[in-house]
Amino acid sequence: MDAKTGFFYLFSVVLLFAAFRVITARNPVHAVLNLILAFSQAAGIWLLLKAEFLGITLILVYLGAVMVLFLFVVMMLDIRIDAVRQGFWKHFPFAALIGALIAFEMGVVLMSGFSGVEEAKTVTATVNAAGQVVQYSNTQALGKLLYTEYLYPVEIAAVILLVAMIAAIALTLRKRKDSKAINPAEQVRVRAADRLQMVKVQPTPAAQVPAGVAPSDEETKA
Description:
By secondary structure, this protein is mainly α. The protein has helices spanning 3-24, 28-48, 52-76, 81-84, 88-113, 117-129, 138-146, 151-173, 184-188, 192-195, 217-221. It has 11 helices and no strands. The longest helix has 26 residues, at 88-113.
């Protein structure tokens, strides 16, 4: 077994363990950290398969942005674990059925996708035996494929993401009626005369006690 195969098995074992811990961890923060570990191992497998662009994208986009955002959100939310786990065993059979169905579909897709690997190897060997040196770049090939054959899906996805970003900004920056935020510019321009206003108040006359009536204790103290 060469070093490449050893690294593949190492990344695969750690990836499976981290994915298992994502769904079994009781603490949401621990689940997110295990998901980060799983993504890093998946990026290592992509690099072993010479898909450098996908591996670097997985690290930069998911580990560097998405998962860090998820981690901050999970740490800021007050999640009650006991309330979340109520009814777990009640819905477990249905969830297990859905999981088994998804695993079966993924297995079918993977097995059918590997059926043409031997044919592709034969074609590559024939080209190499003919003395033709084929040099290509994964990033360049992926870019040509995305912006030629899949140009319209990429543009539709970009428009959807742009609309989602604008909607998120609009929802965040809208003026709320219950907000108590203060404009700093108005605080700087305020004057002392605007904060304090002197009002002349007429003195209150003392209460008149009728003749022959003894004052109470409170009135005497006053």
